[in-house]
Amino acid sequence: MRNKVTVVGAGNVGATTAQRIFDKGLSDVVLVDIVEGLPQGKALDMLESGPILNSDAQIIGTNSYESTANSDVVVVTSGLARKPGMSRDDLLITNMKIITNVVSKTAELSPNSIHIIVTNPLDAMAQQALKITGLPSERIVGMAGILDTARYRSFLAQELHVSVNSVSAYVLGGHGDTMVPVIGSTSVAGTPVAKLIPSKRLNEIVDRARNGGAEIVNYLKTGSAFYAPSASITQMVEAILFDTKEILPCTAYLKGEYGIENLYVGVPVKLGSSGVEEIIELDLTKDELIALQKSASAVQELVDIMEVNQ
User: Fold this and answer.
1) Count of H-run helices and E-run strands, the chain
2) What is the pLDDT of residue 202?
3) Residue 262: its pLDDT value, please?
4) What does each C-alpha distance from 63 to 35, 40, 104, 198 come to in angstroms?
5) Residue 181: helix, strand or coil by DSSP?
6) Minimal CA–CA distance to 167: which of 137, 200, 190?
7) How many structural domains is the chain composed of?
8) DSSP 3-state assignment of 275?
9) What is the pLDDT at residue 89?
């Protein structure tokens, strides 16, 4: 029997995620959306590509949650997307209500699933999902760090004219303006990046990575990024389904690690079949640790606002 992955939200991020999972034949897929006909049409279109792509996976679209029962992984992408001039935090209360509605249903129907939260503001939405579902914290994980790190690595590789595979880096912290690219542990073929790129230019690249999502929103005008986010989600799904125990930067619930208590923040984790199997504590500089804790404080502010608006 194949695994089952539910993707909630058939917009650009959700549909492209479903497509990537189906194309690779990783699992059967259930695509859910409230818009009648949208998930059904997109799922059928993907299904008909199976013979071309040699994928025997099954994919269905639905407007209800019954078909999602007993999913191994639930990916939640539903919610409002950013528009030019908006921050991820501007979406807080509206998306909090959407997340509450979605995960209460998915967790009830798939009590043994691992939920990957993608809806923004991502760290706060993961915190809300933990509260609503009552699932163990290791089975609620957010997709942010992989995407932020991919942007950072892309810009560094372009700057140095090297393969992205030669760039090793992590971006930690909340998925927003306070995210923390860890320069101290960033290297290219083992050489510290600070020895390869002048400080001023390196800071410009860091700032571009922090604002990578906004840069795309400003170009698109009516939408936000979805190709790189969907690739990031798919990497997480693979790690879970195949129990790879890959070390990936994800939004995870911290219980004292990095001096942060009871809060979802982006950190490196060991990701496997049981979800977050270990929090990896990097050896951060004093300034990096302060920046990470500042980022966590920004997430905590959002969580506090949600508490008032429950």
Assistant:
1) 10, 14
2) 96
3) 97
4) 7, 8, 16, 52
5) strand
6) 190
7) 2
8) strand
9) 60
Are 169 and 248 in the same domain? yes
Amino acid at 78: S
By DSSP bridging, strand 261-272 and strand 275-279 are antiparallel
Distance CA 302, CA 151 (A): 24
Same domain? 22 vs 130: yes
> Burial of 85 by CB count in 10 Å (0-12 exposed, 13-18 middle, 19+ buried)?
exposed
Report the distance separating Cα 171 and Cα 146, nearest Å: 8
Round to whole Å and give the CA distance between 50 and 23. Answer: 7
Q: Model-level pTM?
A: 0.95
Do 213 and 82 meet the contact criterion of CB atoms below 8 Å apart? yes
- The pLDDT value given to residue 294: 95
**3-class DSSP assignment, residue 219:** helix
Q: CA angle, 257 as apex, 253 and 259 as ends, to 5°?
A: 110
Active site residues: 175
**Same domain membership, residue 195 and residue 57:** no
125 close to 87: Cβ distance less than 8 angstroms: no
CB 102 within 8 A of CB 78: yes
Q: Look up residue 221 and give its amino acid.
A: K
Residue with tokens 């986010």: 229
- Where do we find the tokens 């949208």? 38
**Which segments of the chain have a pLDDT < 50?**
none
